[in-house]
Design brief:
65 residues; mainly alpha
């Protein structure tokens, strides 16, 4: 996977993260807030993974040049 592909996935995940954050701000239900916080944590982990993949792909591409 290319660095560009990983960055594209990270951007899509960031959009999902922003939507979840908005839902969190709008809820008064503690149960729903916990669910959204768990979703936010998972999305953050996925974004971190994709950024690491992008960094690794960029390093590999740079080493091949």
């Amino acid at each position: 996977m290319s660095a560009e592909d990983s960055l594209g996935k990270a951007e899509a995940l960031l959009e999902r993260l922003e939507a979840a954050r908005t839902r969190l701000e709008q809820t008064d239900d503690p149960e729903q807030a916990i669910e959204v916080l768990q979703e936010l944590a998972e999305l953050a982990r996925e974004i971190e993974t994709e950024l690491g993949n992008a960094r690794q792909a960029a390093d590999t591409d740079g080493a091949d040049a």
